[in-house]
Design brief:
Order of helices and strands: HEHEHEHEHEHEHEHEHHEHH
CATH architecture of the largest domain: 3-Layer(aba) Sandwich
Number of strands: 9
Strand content: 5-15%
CATH class of the largest domain: Alpha Beta
CATH topology of the largest domain: Rossmann fold
Largest sheet: 5 strands, parallel
Helix content: 40-55%
CATH superfamily of the largest domain: Aspartate/ornithine carbamoyltransferase
Strand order of the largest sheet: 7-6-5-8-9
Radius of gyration: 19 Å
């Protein structure tokens, strides 16, 4: 049994296999094919954080594959409150075939996975967001084809989304650049884990966004203040002044560059409306690819081959 907690846990070959499966599932759906590959299977969703894309994409994935899902938010099932995490994990494993957790603390997901007897999927934690990264790579491949040697520049905080994307880019042979102010790069814990997977390497960190996008095929951003960081919002707005992805910044990248954002977007803050809704933006195709990538993750974890 495998869990899907970190992109770094998977080899390039495994990730390519999951991506190939996602591509097939998406093509089949476009043809009107919805094979009931998960008929009789049940997915449990336990969310401490609000969600639009993660919840709906997983529930739609299960429905389209013939399965069902059960959603538990923090008001019904506060993780570790009414009973211990080990007890919750072992109990829920009796009822469902897989679990998705969306939590504040990454250690919660890790402890849950330790005691669960079904696959556990990281639907987002404060440390990383592996489902998003796989959907991002699927979107980039659809736009450009061959991934090897491409450059992805993430303009913003070295947050959970950026961390998973950095690892995914390296696994798929792409270059990753983080454009962030000093003090907002990747934490040392991430650098240690990254070095362990890719000896002698570290993601590139550049503090000048104009320089960082000069050779970018993809320019990516996210909100400057993530959930749980609301008290830092004013300080972050000051720190990230000049890091908005707007038309001026996009013009400093190659003309073929595409724009990505994991959403929700704050137009006028980390991205201008003209870029988010402009011709280089792929943000809604990217959002849609969450479902296709997650279908593939579910089938792969449950050992279902097509």
């Amino acid at each position: 049994m495998r869990h899907f907690l970190h992109i770094i846990d998977f080899t390039s070959s495994e990730l390519k296999g999951i991506l190939k499966l996602a591509t097939k599932l998406k093509a089949d759906l476009a043809k009107g094919l919805r094979p009931p590959l998960l008929a009789g299977r049940v997915l449990g969703l336990i969310f401490e954080k609000p969600s639009l894309r993660t919840r709906v994409s997983f529930e739609a994935a299960m429905a389209q594959l013939g399965g069902t899902s059960i959603f538990l938010d923090s008001t019904e099932n506060h993780i570790g409150a009414r009973e211990s995490i080990p007890d919750q994990a072992r109990t829920l494993s009796q009822f469902v075939d897989a679990l998705v957790l969306r939590t504040y603390a990454h250690k919660t997901i890790e402890e849950f996975a330790e005691f669960a007897t079904v696959p556990v999927i990281n639907g987002l934690s404060d440390y990383n967001h592996p489902c998003q990264a796989l959907a991002d790579v699927l979107t980039i491949r659809e736009a450009f084809g061959d991934l090897k040697g491409m450059t992805v520049t993430f303009v913003g905080d070295g947050n959970n989304v950026a961390r998973s994307l950095a690892v995914a880019c390296t696994r798929f042979g792409m270059n990753f650049i983080l454009a962030a102010p000093k003090g907002y790069g990747f934490p040392e814990e991430f650098h240690t884990n990254y070095r362990g997977a890719f000896p002698g390497k570290l993601p590139t960190h550049i503090t000048d966004p104009s320089e960082a996008v000069s050779a970018a095929d993809v320019i990516y951003t996210d909100v400057w203040t993530s959930m749980g960081q609301e008290a830092e919002s004013k300080a972050r707005a000051l720190a990230f002044h000049g890091f908005q992805v707007d038309e001026t910044l996009m013009a400093k990248a190659p003309s073929h560059a595409k724009f990505l954002h994991c959403l929700p977007a704050h137009r006028g803050e980390e991205v201008s409306a003209g870029v988010a809704d402009g011709p280089q933006s792929l943000i809604f195709a990217q959002a849609g690819n969450r479902m296709h990538a997650q279908k593939a993750i579910l089938l792969w974890l449950l050992g279902i081959k097509i």
